[in-house]
Amino acid sequence: MASSSSTFFICISLFVSFTLAEDPTVSYKFELTYITASPLGVPQQVIAINGKFPGPTINSTTNNNVVNVRNKLDDLVRSLHQKRSSWQDGVLGTNCPIPPKWNWTYNFQVKDQIGSYFYFPSLNFQRASGGFGSFIINPRSVIPIPFDNPADNITILIGDWYIRNHTDLRKTLDAGRTLGMPDGVLINGKGPYRYNDTLVPDGIDHETIDVEPGKTYRIRVSNVGVSTSLNFRIQNHYLLLAETEGSYTVQQNYTSLDIHVGQTYSFLVTMDQNASSDYYIVASARFVNETTWQRVTGVGILHYSNSKGKASGPLPDPPQDQYDNTFSMNQARSIRWNVSASGARPNPQGSFRYGSINVTEVYILRNKSPEMINGKRRAALSGISFVNPTTPIRLADEGFMEVILQNNETKMHSYHLDGYAFFVVGMGYGEWTNDSRGTYNKWDGIARTTTQVYPGAWTAILISLDNVGVWNLRTENLDSWYLGQETYIRIVNPEKNNKTELPMPDNALFCGALSRLQKPQDTSPATFNGFSIGSYGWVLMTMMMLFLF
């Protein structure tokens, strides 16, 4: 890989200290650069962190304070759920971008949170060029987990991939065209193993995961792609689902699982095969013409230390429902909350009885295929296409909210809400009606940050509005998000108690109509904990974490 001439820096320092509350601070140094890589055999520009594509895993523990000092690379990074601090959320509706060559300290706490997530560039389509990595929040040692400690943690990032970079993809959308079929699927930033000489050219580097026979590993899988739902499977191995986006699940085995854009799952996988050969790890496109989309398949290798040979032969079959989403929806409905397990706190997850809370507000958000608005092709929610303002906005609403996500398009969508874990209580085909509430799961519906909405179907979510601030609700499909399919929710607290939003940070940035309030900053190269910080671009970082009730 060759580094390009433009260098960008994000710093998450490398030390552990303590705040006044004696919660440890965990910091990392991040250096962002454009490098040249060839994940699908064609040289292209990708976004690397510390010279790596994908970026390094951030490993934290419940209640850690995480400090970032970084500059702006055009925009950047999301993955966590902020508690009482939308000032640190990192989307243009709530935060100003960091000017070129400026340094800025980003400080947030992973309060009462656990689980598996990922971070990524949040604006201008940069995620399509990389800049993403895994984010793990481990429970405190005094909190039990609902399974035996695994031999190790393995992170796997899967996603559709285009050889065109994010700038070219953006131009395609701006010109009113669709992106078309991806060029492939990457697994941890690498192309497919050459399982088929016709479909996979020679010389492509593939991902290999080394394991020991008889051991059980926790495998955390995130779909970091642009817009394609993927079916994940490991040849001859069961996937015991244990957790998703900070919620422990009822444990059940799957031979494969559909993972939609923006979602993360963690599985317990036992290496119980005879290792007569290596085994395929597969991530293949869903809800498409599988013959036409054969190349949109990621293939890695699971290698036992006592393996007797290379993997060969056909890939394990995907679900046989190419034109029927019923299997996938039933699979999604089967994912349930483990109500007896402790989350980030010692009390059981199920002690938050969401099904008994009165709904005070109901909103139905409908999408449909992109259409022309003011001469440009745009995507919308309930007929409104969002355009990021020059001055960050603060919209208002309050109460316990029920949101119906109605997908009137012919493609799958994933929706994400910053600042919250919402409860997925129901999904079904056709138009949602009041009678649909009769099908809701009011006991152990999964709490998560990103949910899928099937084509021609609805998904109902419940949100306990106890995290004050301004929070972004959006589709995770990058093309529709870029074209305006997002909105903002403001949660206000009329009672001035401990749930009130944290004050504006002393180092808050000002822009747009308030740019006159911004103090100048020394733009000479700075140092933080011994590391140099500098930049030639803009960065906007969003970290979103799951808050467990």
Automatic annotation (TrEMBL):
Q: What is this protein called?
A: L-ascorbate oxidase
Please give the coiled-coil regions recorded for this protein: none
Q: State the taxonomy lineage.
A: Eukaryota, Viridiplantae, Streptophyta, Embryophyta, Tracheophyta
Question: What Gene3D superfamilies does this protein map onto?
Answer: Cupredoxins - blue copper proteins
Query: Sorted alphabetically, which InterPro entries does this protein's record hold?
Result: Cu-oxidase-like_N, Cu-oxidase_2nd, Cu-oxidase_C, Cu-oxidase_fam, Cupredoxin
Q: Which UniProt keywords apply?
A: Glycoprotein, Signal
A GO cellular component annotation here is: plasma membrane
State the SUPFAM superfamilies in the record: Cupredoxins (SSF49503)
Q: Which N-terminal stretch is annotated as signal sequence? A: 1-21
Task: Domain (Plastocyanin-like): give its ranges.
Answer: 32-141, 153-307, 382-495
Q: Which family does it belong to?
A: Belongs to the multicopper oxidase family.
Organism for this UniProt entry = Mikania micrantha
**Molecular function GO labels:** copper ion binding; oxidoreductase activity
